[in-house]
Amino acid sequence: YKETILEHYNHPANSGVVKSPDVISKDYNPACGDVVEIQIKFEKKKIKEIKFQGQGCAISLSSVDILIDSVKNKSVDDVKNLSNENFLKKLGIELSPLRLKCALLGLKILKTAVYSHLGSK
Known about the structure:
Layout: H1 3-10, E1 23-29, E2 34-43, E3 46-55, H2 58-71, H3 76-81, H4 84-91, H5 97-120
Antiparallel strand pairs: 1-2, 2-3
Helix pairs in contact: 1-2, 2-5
């Protein structure tokens, strides 16, 4: 794996718990066994605080950590418009079809969380 992936896997800056989150979203990848939960606190349609917890392979957990770095203080519209392709470019590594599911798990959970929050308003 690229050095960046291993660094985020071994030292995730965004792992933890958000106190009194507005939304919690959790999902898993049955093919690999990855389980990830994302917690978000919003302020004026922007992500004010975001953390994750999870267990899984280096690709899934480092991808979530990198994803969270890229969406901190972003608007919900920015998250809604973030495509799989653009996110995969940020990772900068070649992935097999099975590993694509690992890499995109966090984005799927993040978008579920944002849409869930918007639906509750």
